[in-house]
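Structure ticket #2291
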Amino acid sequence: MRDNASPSPYTASSWHASLRLRFDRIGASTRLATREHAGPLRVQKALYPEGPAICHAIMLHPPGGVVGGDTLQVDAEAQADAHAFLTTPGAAKWYRANGKVSRQQVLLTAGPGAVIEWMPQETIFYNGAQVALAQSVDLAADAHYIGSEVLCFGRRARGEVFDHGWVQQSLQVRRGDKLLWWEQGRIDPAALASPLGLDGYSVCASLLAVGAVLPATMLAAVRALDPALAASQVKSVFIARYLGDDSEAARQLMAAVWALARPQLLGCAAHTPRIWRT
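Resolution: structure written out below.
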């Protein structure tokens, strides 16, 4: 456990937290059938702002930030025909390294006819953070997935520049046992400055939608949202990306892309979670 007598997040001892969720389709409803946690990572309750068919789960990390040596593990599964939407109540904060690497591992699984949406709010990496992020998405042949992320390097509002540290990422998406998407990379100050990296920007964002070929008119609508947005379709995978320096603008743009893509991919309108507005 952390030493509660120490107020500094940089000197606290490490925490290993895990969350396992399973969503089942029961009649016309998606139910949170399994909710297991260890350490400070949990879901308080299932929410149904869109009606019983879509279950919203807000993932909480009560410490509010991740220090060196912390490990977060999320395992979420949507069983056949279930529809799960996962988000967070606010920005995730990864503090500067204390000699140890912070890690997050996410495994998302969707069964036949199921849908899983992974839509956390922005992630902020403090200067000096050393973070390894890994995400794996495993979909049945007719399952669908939407995932988004907004990554912020340094606290720009405080004038903080990410001039030391690194963030390593990997993302794999499989559908019907076929690898559809695999990207990995390491972002450090050199990559932030490089024209082959973030080209001097401090915020990057992306949205990935898997499961159908979306119409060309939707791609055009996405590109028209902002000149900084790039969008492309590769068979059943749609990807939108953004580079900039404003995390709020990035978050709003990803929400706008989601609002365009969700009806086309899932046949339901985008219902903005109330937690995003608080």
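Closing remark: The CA atoms of residues 231 and 240 lie 4 Å apart.
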